From TrEMBL:
This is Uncharacterized conserved protein, DUF2252 family. It comes from Paraburkholderia diazotrophica. It comes from the Bacteria. Residues 1-27 are annotated as: Disordered. Residues 7-18 have a biased composition (Basic and acidic residues). InterPro entries: DUF2252 (IPR018721).
Amino acid sequence: MKASTIAEREASGRAAREHAKRSSHRAIGHMHRNPIDLLRQSSEGRVERLVPLRYGRMTVSPFAFFRGSAIVQAHDLSMTPHTTLTLPICGDAHLLNFGGFATPERQLIFDLNDFDEVSAAPFEWDLKRLAASFVVAARHMRFSRGAAYDLVMTAVNQYRDRIAQYAQSGALELWYERITFDRMVDMAVNAENRRLIRRAMERASGRTHESMLEKMAERDGDRYVIRDAPPSLFHVHGSSTLFDSTDDWFTLGDWRKLIHGMYEGYLKTLSDDRRELLGNFALHDLVFKVVGVGSVGTRCLVLLTADPHGKPLFLQVKEARRSVIAQHYKAGSHKSEPRHEGERIVQGQRMLQAASDIFLG
């Protein structure tokens, strides 16, 4: 939604409130659904031998189940009143899908870091999933009901206050707004919080390609080879593979055949300077990686490359499936509608993330 003045935006907000009053957001929606059926639906097309691992990870705790069942909440939210204020949302904005990482300028920031479910939908769906994640996590950690309530109220009140602040910001000022770790340290309310934030800074700054190489790979002649660590990490065509012999990836027989077409297509989506930069890196190895909870069973690869000095660069290649948000909310067509699911995720990440990886494509 675009409006030329703050007054017009406020008027649009008041009109949206008439469509969905604040009290209506207490509704839990149409609950006559079988969550198992929805989970089976979301498992279709995944690597078959990994689907039980997905369910196993989800049974570890109520919060793990919540992480892996975005389709259930998308279904339930689609049955509730909404504001009609539709824009690109993360679609899976639970508290563990935020984290620290370095910008292209090597500045440590805190932001969303998962966009598999990004889609156009009512803005409050993200806020509701975030609030629900605090409640589920608090219960799992045996916090009191009062503590859970305080966590949710702090989150939503901060959201409200920041949106009010951003409504007064200029377009460029808002575009360059980001949450840095240094800013978080300055805003910390006590010494213990500052210590925890600095510890997170150390962990984030220590996650480099070189440190990953030491942990994951070894030299074999003139190239690096990633070590298998099944079921989380394995070569598609190796002895530890979890692919069936009839799978189209497995029947290719060689990882270079598997990645060649993908990689060439990917390079075409990058700007000239970044394509030139990647041209300095040779392909060394490729493994399948089992990621997260909700994504287990989807096709995800880690590609290890290195420059002429042996300095590594890891690239992640992820399957882009249809968003669970799009399955349960019809936003209508748009002139810039993505041509495929991969483009949807990249467009959404670039729109929502303060600073995206320079190799995102």
